[in-house]
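FORM 7B: Structural annotation worksheet

SECTION A. Query
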Amino acid sequence: MSHFSVAVFSQTPGDVEELLAPFIEQVDADSPYAEFVGNTDCDFDEAAKAKGYWHNPNARWDWWEIGGRWRGLLRLRPGKSGYTAPLEHWHKDFVYPPHRCDAALVADCDFSPREAQIRQAARLWEVAVEGDAPREGEEFFSPWKPEYYLDRYGDKETFIRQESAFSTYAFITAEGEWHEQGRMGWFGMDDATNESIRQYEEKFQSYLQEAREKGLAITIVDCHI
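SECTION B. Predicted structure
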């Protein structure tokens, strides 16, 4: 199964659950998001009066939580405040870094890349793709061959830009539109391509600016599928 980050843009943080609802995986005959699929190998369904099952063709998650594996992803501007999710279960020992949160007004967040992020991305490419040896004190682990990075990002410049820029795997607009890099499957595998990622990043950065101008909130959600 897979976890992936989703930025939910909304008029208020309280709208997050409503915006995520149309993309739930578990549905039945009473769900407004369900469609019936006929299948003679399945049991007879009383509601549909046929053999088959109910599914949501727009399903993207089976459960979610605010923050999750991406707790503290948002960086606040000086003097601004945001929301931090309750620390429960396996997150109980997590300590939020200063000026970090899980939800806030877009205008109150600092999305600019840090020099350290740019350097880290550059070195990862040099080690994983170009074959450079790690320097003293450096630790890099990548399960992927160089071909993976070349196919997915195309070149070093694109990799650095995408890795250092603020982004999430998917986002939902305040109007309820879902956008994603690719369709997420099991074990963290997806069907994203260099082109789909490029198009997604353009949409994300454009909507981020639009959300700032409209006074929208942003909430970081950990989705599981």
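SECTION C. Observations
The radius of gyration is 20 Å. The chain has a mean pLDDT of 95.

SECTION D. Sign-off
Analyst initials: ____
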